[in-house]
Design a protein that fits this description.
About 35% of the residues lie in helices and about 25% in strands. By secondary structure, the chain is an alpha/beta fold. An eight-stranded parallel beta barrel has the order 1-2-7-8-9-10-11-12, surrounded by four helices. A two-stranded antiparallel ribbon has the order 4-5. Bound molecules: SN-glycerol-3-phosphate (G3P) and calcium ion. SN-glycerol-3-phosphate binds near residues 33, 101, 183 and 208. Keywords: Hydrolase. Its EC number is 3.1.4.46. It holds the Pfam family GDPD.
Length: about 240
């Protein structure tokens, strides 16, 4: 079972920060998940979970109310600042999984096209500069419109549908979306669903798994990867089970 550091080693360091990414690598995570917000004024992606700055920075308002420069100077604690997607990619070693979660709630086609074309540009550049390879890139989202369109632009990347509800089966996802993975909320996990995902030829990744009983459940159900805020501690727990 692969260990994916959720927002980096975010249990101990500011989520989605350079420090959290570096610590996740140091702690031996198999992969790193980061959240991406599209900053409309600059057309850039920033590594940030929320649309609003308040929870993580104490500043008020939507990220689009600030310039990119202001955002990149914004503290997120422990001497860390908001970073761009390109800065995050530069830190990721070859062979480590990089899961980019696109936090975009719109179904507006024009915006989806604009931001996915930007993502295509950033990723094509990173691959051509040999900063990253297609096999290590996983793109996920709760927004399945975006996943569907993204696959046409980035056919060599792996795509995953994020699911936070409890579906009856995964036939729709496998047949209509040609995904690599289903990334499922731990709260809806059961043997039937994991088997169903596997039967459709997809891998099953589960979020967010920090608790020892949840780790045991994922191992017992043959889950392929878990997202955890504590990669080192989770690795140690798995070793001892
Ligand atoms: O990618 C899995 C998980 O990160 C999705 O939920 O809110 O932690 O981004 P959230
Ligand atoms: Ca996420």
């Amino acid at each position: 079972m692969l260990i994916i550091a959720h927002r980096g080693a975010s249990g101990e360091y500011p989520e989605n920060s350079i420090l959290a990414l570096e610590k996740a690598i140091e702690q031996g995570a198999d992969g790193i998940e980061i959240d991406l917000q599209y900053h409309q004024p600059s057309g850039e992606f920033i590594v940030f979970h929320d649309r609003n700055l308040l929870r993580l920075t104490g500043k008020t308002g939507n990220i689009n109310n600030y310039t990119l420069d202001e955002l990149l100077k914004t503290s997120i604690g422990k001497n860390q600042h908001i970073i761009t997607l390109a800065q995050a990619i530069a830190l990721i070693p070859k062979k480590l999984i990089l899961n980019l979660e696109l936090k975009v709630s719109t179904s507006e086609q024009l915006l989806i096209e604009t931001l996915m074309q930007k993502l295509q540009q950033v990723l094509n550049h990173a691959v051509s500069m040999k900063h990253i390879t297609w096999p290590q890139l996983y793109i996920s989202s709760f927004n399945h419109f975006l996943i569907n369109y993204g696959k046409t632009l980035l056919p060599k990347a792996n795509f995953a549908a994020l699911i936070a509800h409890c579906p009856l089966n995964y036939a729709t996802f496998s047949e209509t979306m040609a995904l690599a993975s289903i990334n499922q909320d731990i709260d809806c996990l059961n043997q039937e669903l994991v088997s169903d995902i596997h039967r459709h030829g997809l891998t099953c990744w589960v979020f967010t798994v920090d608790d020892i009983d949840d780790i045991k459940q994922c191992l017992a159900l043959n889950v392929d990867a878990i997202f955890t805020n504590f990669p080192q501690r989770t690795r140690e727990i798995i070793r001892q089970i």
